[in-house]
Amino acid sequence: MRKRKSLYITLFIAVLLVSILTISAMADAGNFSGGSSYGGSSGGSFGSSGAWGLLALGSAGGSSGGIITIIIIAFIVLNIIRRMRSARTTSTTGVTGEQTTSYSELMPISTIRDVDPNFSEAAMKEKIANLYVRMQNAWQAKEFESMRPFMTDALYSQFKLQLDEIIRSECTNYVERIAVLDTNLTRWRSDEVVDAIVAVVNTRIVDYTLNDKTGKLVSGSKTAEKFMTYEWTLIRSKGMTTPVAAGEGSEDIVTIHCPSCGAPVEINQSAKCPYCDSVINAGDYDWVISAIKGISQRTGY
Fold first, then answer.
1. 3-state secondary structure of 60
2. Which neighbouring-strand residues pair with 179?
3. pLDDT at position 21, please?
4. Using CA atoms, how far apart are residues 30 and 135, in angstroms rounded to an integer?
């Protein structure tokens, strides 16, 4: 018992030291972009294991930002400890939420049409590209609520937590000259609850952060282009299929009925029902982003 407590204390102290020594890297939506190039497994991820982005928060907001970062890291560590304890008493059939999911074997993306005849790779690629641009714009505008229908609750909360830190630091992260260069749907998988698509997304951005009061450059460059590669995972409730397109320009509109009041709602416009203000998530009806992993970054001048 004492050894276990000692291990917890050591882990806690180590994470605190990492948070103190981490260099500030507030950049693009989710803080995947940074000051130096990276590739392979060194990329960061957001999703069920999205602590990497939180570690990227640093001293740009002054001492208050550092304290907040330490509190966040401490919360993560305590949450890990709590899960470790609960894991000893939880049966495998009782595991839910963002814990490990047992997926079936990954399948070629072409086979998804066997269960969803109306599925279109071209439409999905366009959807992902549009979501990427929308996400960056919402991040820069500090109005991330518009992304809520298109992300799982866990992923949205992680992004919002980082954006709130930037707001508290009185900074703005500018993401400009956004271009989605290529999107490749690599594979898909299924379990008892959801279907999931994995995509590799290649983009180009110009990414920098300014202090709102002084206009001083905090990080990044106003001229250097960053070429980013991400791995996106999107999920949808199992058994859902792609509806027949209602017409040109309608692919990005998903009309559902509010689960609270039954009113028809176009969830591409807002995360809330305009009639009863209930928060609506598209996950039960359409593909939503569940995880984002930064695979590589290259800076061009």
1. coil
2. 204
3. 39
4. 10
Which tokens hold the place of 141? 């505008």
Residues 73-102 have a mean pLDDT of 44
Burial class, 4, CB count within 10 angstroms (exposed 0-12 / middle 13-18 / buried 19+): exposed
**Contact status, residue 98 vs residue 154, Cβ threshold 8 Å:** yes
Segment holding 66, helix H or strand E = helix 63-87
The overall pTM is greater than 0.70: no
CB count within 10 Å of CB 259 equals 12
Helix (H, G, I), strand (E, B) or coil at 29: coil
Domain boundaries, the chain: 2-88+116-300
| Cα separation, 225 vs 97, whole angstroms | 37
Asked if pLDDT for residue 9 goes beyond 70, the answer is no
SS3 117: coil
Return the structure tokens found at 124: 């999905």
Distance, CA of 26 to CA of 33 (rounded, Å):
8
Mutual angle of helices 63-87 and 153-168, in 10-degree steps: 160
13-50 pLDDT, tens digit each:
544 444 433 334 446 776 666 666 667 544 455 553 33
CA distance 289 to 235: 6
Give which of 55, 53, 267 is closest to 148, Cα–Cα: 267
The token pair that represents 230 in the structure block: 């991400």
CATH topology of domain 2-88+116-300: Nuclear Transport Factor 2; Chain: A, (3.10.450)
Mean pLDDT, range 211-216, rounded to an integer: 97
pLDDT at 170 over 50: yes
| Residue bearing tokens 């570690």 | 55
pLDDT top residue among 193 and 101: 193
How close are the terminal C-alpha atoms of the chain, in Å?
Answer: 55
For residue 274, the Cα-to-chain-centroid distance in whole angstroms is 26
